[in-house]
Amino acid sequence: MSGLSQIGKKSSVPITLPDTRITSSRPKLGIAIPLANEEATIRELLRRILRHLQPHDQVYCVLDNMSKDHTRDLVSCAAGEDSRIILIWAPENRGVMDAYFRGYRAAFDGGCEWILEMDGGFSHLPEQIPQFIAGMETGFDYVGGSRFMTGGCHASPWTRIFISKAGSVLANWLLKTRMTDMTSGFECFTRNAMSQVLKHGVTSKANFFQTEIRYRMHQFNWMEVPITYRNRNYSVGRSSLLEAIRVLWALYRAKPGD
After folding, report:
1. CA 111 → CA 56, 96, 130, 149, 176, distances in Å?
2. What digits encode the pLDDT tens for the residues 190-216?
3. Ranges under pLDDT 50 in the chain
4. Which residues, including other chains, have CB under 8 Å from residue 6's CB and lie 6 or more apart?
């Protein structure tokens, strides 16, 4: 798979990613996926993810009390059939950020050298996993998915597109960052980059934590790859928006002087 990619830190010149081939030599990949009520799609999602994994890779499926259907049972069954699937039951989670970090930690503690984060429910497409692997094989510390670069797609209600785009523009302006998408998930880290995320954590309790992470990743050798994102939910909580503004302002105030 190939695609135009935005390069950070060392260069801003687009490159073409090489083809990704499943070889036994690449580092262990861990995929962290927070899940909720996914019983209608989880079997197909895992099947399509596993196509891109090697025998030593792992998929960490994080569930908590937000899951009210049979997703946990289905993941448990799948884990019994394929040892690459790991069920993480985390009833202590108090929000989406906790779920993501529980997956990060599980992959890190599991010895993964590369850690990929993605959403369930086909908000993110498993068929785009190879371009993240290709970016890591090229030597980058962080590969972030972008809905707003050439080849990317934000297939969502206009309200969510506007908030995501405006958030990226505002973050880049205030923080002097350069990613085309500063508010998205679907991203891959080296073990070293993830160690910094786990060490420093985030202050946000909602989805804005992705911006905090991307801000931190600017200290590493980074690149972006185009992704397709689908979300049919129109609502964005007022409290989440207010928290995003608060956290962004705090990052700006704490930013080292230029």
Report:
1. 10, 24, 20, 32, 33
2. 999 999 999 999 988 777 899 999 999
3. 1-4, 10-22, 234, 258
4. 12, 14, 146, 149, 179, 180, 223, 224
